[in-house]
Design goal:
The protein is an all-alpha fold. Helices cover about 75% and strands about 0% of the residues. It contains seven helices and no strands. The longest helix has 23 residues. The termini are far apart.
């Protein structure tokens, strides 16, 4: 069973790593240029935070999969919501890296709804798994506020075009 535990725990990191790999040159340049609020975390905090968050959500997804007896009809909604929010999570760096702050914000808002839905659907199955998503939802709340502020404060970037 340990292989399943490791596989589910590592899975979120795969998309996060690919997003970083594909946008590693563009994001730091854009991030430096943007007008950001004083409470904006430094860029170097993001990989540390996402490592912790991806590990927690990955392990939580394993707990749900295990409690539901694998991929079956009972798992469609809880793991489907998880997969959908994970896909939006992985898509965000591509919008941001393309300087499309509006699409990055839309992605974040949809991600928020799916992550909340995931947590609610998981709570009835495994409370520990649901609670492992609380730090993720906290980070998403901060990221959503940050995305709104950055989108509002950087009108030249709203269209997805850079100078």
């Amino acid at each position: 069973m340990w292989a399943y535990t490791v596989g589910f725990t590592v899975l979120p990191h795969v998309g996060g790593f690919l997003g970083w790999l594909m946008n590693r040159k563009e994001i730091p340049i854009l991030y430096e240029k943007l007008k950001k609020p004083s409470w904006c975390p430094p860029l170097k905090i993001f990989p540390v935070a996402w490592t912790v968050l991806y590990t927690g959500m990955g392990y939580a997804s394993y707990l749900i999969w295990n409690d539901l007896g694998g991929c079956n009809s009972k798992a469609v909604i809880p793991l489907g919501l998880y997969g959908a929010q994970l896909a939006l999570n992985w898509a965000w760096p591509h919008f941001f890296g393309a300087h499309n702050l509006k699409m990055a914000l839309i992605d974040t808002l949809c991600l928020d709804a799916l992550a909340i839905g995931t947590m609610c659907s998981w709570y009835r199955i495994n409370k520990v798994a649901a609670l492992l998503l609380v730090p993720y939802l906290g980070w998403l709340a901060m990221a959503t506020c940050l995305s709104i502020r950055i989108w509002k404060d950087n009108p030249e970037q709203k269209s997805g075009k850079s100078e």
